[in-house]
């Protein structure tokens, strides 16, 4: 019997009699693809886009032998939602947990999937996620165990947004100075399972669609060039061509059944709303954690989040129905993506325009209705019987601001914009060369007093520095076992009365979501009070505009972990922090160093492993007590 060790506050250990080692061999390369009927270059895996789906059971060990066939850049893969307990080097974060895998080289990820849930994986080097490097990772319960809910089948929605501009041009625009700064703009298309349609819509073009695309480009996709795509250019092959890469996604279901609909968002920018025409759904899982079931007619999902919902098909009904995925949180300029829920009694029919619904697709809720989105988030509660959070012994306030640093627009936390070093933080700790790799100055646990969150950073009141933001590689350090509250505080951007949503993702952990609020957080005036009775466990949480979000986690997974906004251009502009846990324990560091594959640290100042191996381990200085 194989039992996987879990964090103290997580769900009960999965003791699987048949835990397996699952082996995968991947080659990552650039390739031509037409995700939305426009041929572009994507980053694919084994010639596939999106990448292959990994399916395993809780307790299984995953082995992914990955070869980098990109010619000019490194690559890493982050296993989003997998906590990497005991394997922090396999987290797949360049400059934090490992070195990028160089062109032509290979690296093998080995890790245990410790619990069941809906997860995904994606590139975590540069902006490779936005270039198409992602795929689904589904973990079923361990052999012999059962979910607390029943269903007859599964459907999988992997959501993303797609830009026609190459990620290298996007990154270059974000790095331009002063008035030359170039924002990435809104995506051209929303994709469902890697498929969408640019410049046309599968459903009726009504006032809702015209309001989004005022240039009237929104037209119903036509059945043109329905020939074998191998005979014509990919870019000329529309959504109904026989071998199209951008055809409608059709889910076949049977009447009177219950389906588990797994939904995950790996978008670069967009927050999305999902609804199934004519059907309500029951939310049962969020980020791999069970929640108290509740019914909704539509569901908001931000980048980095995942859900499972139960969909009960009608006993009788006119098939087919639309599944609509539209943009919220930002004024949309991208048409909703559409998939089809089709009732079948027997064999599956060939997808064509004749199989599409004749009804108008559901309209996406108002994009800037923050209260509606916040109300949905507040409905999420831990499933009955879940362990309650333990008392905290440290609080960190993280002010999210947009500021100007040396002519560049940056995102910053407590006036520090993250800059990653050339040597992985984990390697720096393992080989006791922290002062050679990153800025070891202790980060503050709060922001400057008197900061007015309702004013841009350049318009702060007298006494608050207006040019205080710096670019730095500093980290937060935690003793093993610390229980930490983090209050994410939103504020005005560089424009007055302008604030955006930020989905924050924590690597290596789940955390309890204690609450959301408007305005400035106050420990004495929190209304309602923080939820410590049945808060949900998540790995990604939304910080809403002009408000705050409070979370709690236990620092009991030794390693160095990223905590960042999951919006790709925001992270590129410095919106993240690095957490070092348990690095004060010399014995644990020595054990960790023996386990880390040497190829994970073959860059920067840890490249000379022979010289470094002779260095004695000196524990990191424990962090000072919180004020």
From TrEMBL:
Residues 30-140, 156-344, 471-582 form the Plastocyanin-like domain. Residues 1-18 form the signal peptide. Its cofactor is Cu cation. It is found in: Secreted. It catalyses: 4 L-ascorbate + O2 = 4 monodehydro-L-ascorbate radical + 2 H2O. InterPro entries: Cu-oxidase-like_N, Cu-oxidase_2nd, Cu-oxidase_C, Cu-oxidase_fam, Cu_oxidase_CS, Cu_oxidase_Cu_BS, Cupredoxin, CuRO_1_AAO. It is an enzyme of class 1 (oxidoreductase). SUPFAM superfamilies: Cupredoxins (SSF49503). Keywords: Copper, Disulfide bond, Metal-binding, Oxidoreductase, Repeat, Secreted, Signal. Pfam families: Cu-oxidase, Cu-oxidase_2, Cu-oxidase_3. Its EC number is 1.10.3.3. The keyword Chaperone does not apply. Residues 350-372 are annotated as: Disordered. Coiled coil: none annotated. One of its GO terms (molecular function) is copper ion binding. It comes from the Eukaryota. GO terms for cellular component: extracellular region; plasmodesma. Belongs to the multicopper oxidase family. Dimer. This is L-ascorbate oxidase. It comes from Digitaria exilis.
């Amino acid at each position: 019997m194989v039992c996987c060790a879990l964090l103290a506050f997580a769900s009960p250990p999965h003791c699987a009699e048949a835990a397996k080692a699952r082996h995968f061999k991947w080659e990552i390369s650039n390739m031509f693809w037409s995700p939305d009927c426009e041929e572009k270059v994507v980053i694919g895996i084994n010639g596939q886009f999106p990448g292959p789906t990994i399916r395993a059971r809780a307790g299984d060990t995953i082995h992914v032998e990955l070869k980098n066939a990109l010619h000019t850049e490194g690559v890493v893969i982050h296993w989003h939602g997998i906590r990497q307990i005991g394997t922090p080097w396999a987290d797949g974060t360049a400059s934090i947990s490992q070195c990028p895998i160089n062109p032509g080289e290979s690296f093998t990820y080995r890790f245990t999937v410790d619990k069941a849930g809906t997860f995904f994986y994606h590139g975590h080097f540069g902006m490779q996620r936005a270039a198409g490097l992602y795929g689904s990772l589904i973990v079923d319960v361990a052999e012999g165990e059962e979910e607390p809910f029943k269903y007859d089948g599964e459907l999988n929605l992997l959501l993303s947004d797609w830009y026609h501009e190459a990620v290298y041009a996007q990154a270059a625009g974000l790095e331009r100075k002063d008035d030359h700064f170039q924002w990435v703009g809104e995506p051209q298309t929303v994709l469902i399972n890697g498929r969408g349609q640019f410049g046309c819509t599968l459903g009726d073009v009504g006032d809702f669609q015209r309001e989004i695309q005022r240039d009237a480009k929104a037209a119903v996709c036509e059945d043109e060039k329905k020939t074998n795509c191998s005979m014509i250019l990919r870019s000329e092959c529309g959504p109904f061509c026989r071998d199209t890469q951008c055809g409608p996604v059709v889910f076949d279901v049977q009447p009177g059944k219950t389906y588990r609909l797994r939904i995950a968002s790996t978008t670069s920018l967009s927050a999305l709303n999902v609804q199934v025409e004519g059907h309500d759904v029951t939310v049962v899982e969020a980020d791999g954690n069970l929640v108290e079931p509740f019914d909704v007619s539509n569901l908001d999902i931000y980048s980095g989040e995942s859900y499972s919902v139960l969909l009960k098909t009608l006993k009788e009904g006119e098939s087919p129905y639309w599944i609509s995925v539209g943009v919220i949180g930002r004024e949309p300029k991208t048409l909703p993506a559409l998939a089809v829920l089709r009732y079948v009694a027997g064999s599956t029919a060939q997808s064509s325009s004749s199989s599409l619904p004749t009804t108008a697709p559901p309209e996406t809720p108002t994009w800037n209705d923050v209260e509606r989105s916040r109300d949905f988030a507040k409905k999420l509660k831990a499933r009955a019987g879940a362990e309650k959070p333990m008392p905290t012994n440290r609080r960190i306030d993280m002010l999210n601001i947009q500021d100007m640093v040396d002519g560049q627009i940056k995102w910053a936390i407590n006036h520090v914009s993250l800059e990653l070093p050339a040597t992985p933080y984990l390697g720096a700790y393992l080989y006791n060369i922290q002062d050679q790799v990153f800025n070891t100055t202790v980060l503050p646990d709060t922001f400057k007093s008197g900061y007015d969150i309702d004013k841009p950073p350049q318009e702060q009141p007298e006494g608050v520095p207006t040019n205080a933001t710096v670019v730095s590689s500093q980290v937060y350090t935690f003793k093993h076992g610390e229980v930490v509250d983090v209050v994410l505080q939103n504020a005005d951007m560089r424009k007055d009365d302008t604030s955006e949503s930020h989905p924050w993702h924590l690597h290596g952990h789940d955390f309890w979501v204690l609450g959301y609020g408007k305005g400035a957080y106050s420990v004495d005036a929190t209304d309602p009070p923080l939820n410590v009775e049945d808060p949900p466990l998540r790995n990604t949480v939304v910080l809403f505009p002009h408000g705050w979000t409070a979370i709690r986690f236990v620092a009991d997974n030794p390693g160095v972990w990223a905590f960042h906004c999951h919006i790709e251009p925001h992270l590129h502009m410095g919106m993240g922090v690095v957490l070092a846990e348990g690095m004060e324990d010399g014995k644990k560091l020595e054990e960790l160093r023996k386990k880390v594959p040497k190829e994970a640290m073959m860059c920067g100042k840890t490249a000379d492993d022979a010289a470094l191996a002779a260095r004695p381990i000196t524990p990191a200085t424990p962090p000072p007590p919180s004020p």
